[in-house]
């Protein structure tokens, strides 16, 4: 009962913080942040429900579990799977969170180097290869050059913005570590997914633009074929 009361108090504090943060829930910033951090919001909501209801799930289910063996086995399996997954998640979150918190600077340096390696060598060399290779953007050399320059400019602009915002990486890593310590491994994993999607937004935009050009050309060729047929 005391553990259940502490869990309920912890859930109440989280809900109070959520109400304070969502005070301007109709604002543009809140709506966009909820869309960008969609996986994190869902994981936090699931973990808050687990924190609130896990003492109820772990208790005995009354006389029905005594009268029906099948129901008792299913309830016991459900209880064991819930507390084992929750305990393992919290244990992994604490181990990785404390390790990441004590090595935040080295992790930040590794992330920056890895990002620069991917941006400056892999992506730019791939775009330069697609500008002139026979199997590149287009068989037309001039059009392939235009598409390649657009892609290189987008990569350069995004890499410049990431360099300017690089000082926030240490705080992001510490936030991931603290969230892992408090909530378990699921929350920082969902936050990493959202950050990765945000960091690769320029690649998704380029993919959408190239797909739009390709679909438009395919539709035009199909219309031309129907016309001649």
From TrEMBL:
Pfam families reported for this sequence: Gpi1 (PF05024)
Transmembrane region(s): 12-31, 86-104, 155-173, 180-203
GO biological process: GPI anchor biosynthetic process
Keyword Secreted found: no
Cellular component terms (Gene Ontology): membrane
InterPro entries hit by this protein: PigQ/GPI1
Keywords: Glycosyltransferase, Membrane, Transferase, Transmembrane, Transmembrane helix
Domain of life, per lineage: Eukaryota
GO-annotated molecular function: glycosyltransferase activity
Ion transport listed as a keyword: no
Protein name: Phosphatidylinositol n-acetylglucosaminyltransferase subunit q
Organism encoding this protein: Quercus suber
């Amino acid at each position: 009962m005391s553990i259940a009361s502490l869990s309920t108090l912890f859930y109440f504090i989280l809900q109070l913080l959520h109400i304070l943060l969502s005070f301007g829930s109709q604002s543009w910033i809140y709506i966009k942040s909820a869309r960008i951090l969609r996986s994190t919001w869902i994981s936090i909501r699931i973990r808050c429900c687990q924190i609130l209801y896990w003492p109820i799930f772990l208790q005995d289910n009354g006389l029905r579990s005594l009268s029906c063996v099948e129901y008792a086995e299913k309830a016991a399996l459900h209880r064991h799977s819930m507390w084992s997954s929750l305990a393992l998640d919290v244990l992994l979150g604490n181990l990785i969170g404390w390790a990441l918190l004590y090595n935040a600077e080295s992790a930040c340096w590794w992330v920056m180097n890895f990002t620069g390696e991917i941006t400056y060598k892999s992506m730019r060399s791939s775009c330069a290869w697609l500008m002139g290779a026979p199997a590149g953007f287009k068989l037309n050399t001039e059009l392939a050059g235009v598409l390649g320059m657009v892609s290189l400019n987008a990569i350069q602009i995004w890499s410049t913005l990431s360099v300017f915002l690089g000082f926030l990486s240490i705080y992001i890593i510490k936030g991931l570590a603290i969230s892992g310590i408090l909530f378990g491994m699921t929350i920082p994993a969902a936050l990493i997914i959202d950050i990765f999607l945000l960091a690769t937004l320029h690649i998704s935009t380029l993919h959408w633009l190239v797909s739009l050009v390709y679909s438009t050309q395919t539709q035009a060729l199909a219309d031309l074929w129907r016309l001649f047929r």
